[in-house]
Amino acid sequence: MELDLAPTPYPGCMVCSGYQQALADLIRADPSRAADARVLWTRHLANEHA
User: Fold this and answer.
1) Domains held by the chain: number
2) For labelling, which of 26, 32, 36, 45 has a CA lying 20 to 30 Å from the CA of 18?
3) Domain range spanning residue 34?
4) Block means of pLDDT (10 residues each) for the chain, length 50 residues?
C-alpha cells in the first residue's frame, strides 16, 4: 500500500521517524484518514523543523 507521505527531509530525526510510522499505521487501520494523515505530517514538518 502506498502511504503517500512525503519523506522526511531530516532522515536522522527520531521524532519524524516515529511520527511517520504512527501516521502510516493510522492509514493502514483506516484508509479514509489518509488526507488527515498527510495534513498532520505536513504540520509536523513545519512545526518541528521550522
Assistant:
1) 1
2) 32
3) 14-48
4) 66 84 90 90 83
